[in-house]
Design a protein that fits this description.
The protein has 188 residues and is of the alpha/beta class. It has one domain (4-183): 3-Layer(aba) Sandwich (Rossmann fold), CATH 3.40.50. 48% of the residues lie in helices and 11% in strands. The chain contains eight helices and five strands; from the N terminus they run βαβαααβααβαβα. A five-stranded parallel β-sheet has the order 2-3-1-4-5, sandwiched between helices. Helix 1 (16-25) packs across helix 8 and helix 5 crosses helix 7. The two termini are 19 Å apart. The relative contact order is 0.23.
């Protein structure tokens, strides 16, 4: 039987990766976010020295970048089926690609929408914007205000796809991790 697939999403800088790392430390199988490696590769390829926004703004071919990102997330989705774990977590999901493209006003083909409709997650965990923990870094270019707007697109996209996200309240990494485990009844 395939594992229960759970996506953890939210705007940039909401603590997703910290929560995923915490879940991994508790023995849960997790797939890490793949955009950071794509962003680093795109920065190198584009030979840019200054960035002020998401990589989708500075890459030469945003459609190609998004197609590769979508394919990477689809591969992660399918790789979960080889795990014997009853539950797997993903740091971002397939619909995140659509949400970001919508945020940036980028056109996409039905291929992107079809992937979201066919490859469904069992649960969606949404981490809301939190100004006190938000930090930009080498692969995170958005301002906090942009992160809030992206969060809105993420929430809207998942709702339009029929998901009812579980919203995680602010708290320590441990508290947020425990909230997810409790909300989804994933007692270890």
């Amino acid at each position: 039987m395939p594992p229960k697939k759970i996506v953890i999403t939210g705007g940039p800088g909401t603590g997703k990766t910290s929560v995923v790392n915490s879940l991994m430390s508790k023995g849960f199988t997790c797939f890490e976010e793949i955009i950071r490696s794509l962003t680093s590769a795109a920065k190198d390829k584009e030979n840019q020295t200054e960035y002020r926004s998401n990589p989708l703004v500075f890459v030469h071919d945003p459609h190609d970048f998004n197609t590769r990102l979508l394919q990477g997330r689809m591969e992660q989705y399918h790789r979960a089926n080889i795990h014997e774990a009853p539950v797997v977590f993903y740091d971002r999901g397939i619909p995140d690609v659509l949400a970001y493209m919508n945020y940036f006003g980028q056109a996409y083909t039905s291929y992107f929408e079809q992937a979201c409709k066919e490859l469904r997650y069992d649960e969606v965990i949404l981490l809301p914007p939190w100004k006190e923990i938000y930090r930009a870094d080498a692969e995170r270019f958005e301002t906090f205000e942009e992160a809030v707007a992206i969060h809105g697109h993420l929430e809207k996209t998942y709702l339009q796809l029929g998901y009812g996200p579980v919203v995680v309240p602010k708290g320590s990494i441990q508290e947020r991790t425990e909230y997810i485990i409790e909300a989804l009844k994933l007692y270890t």
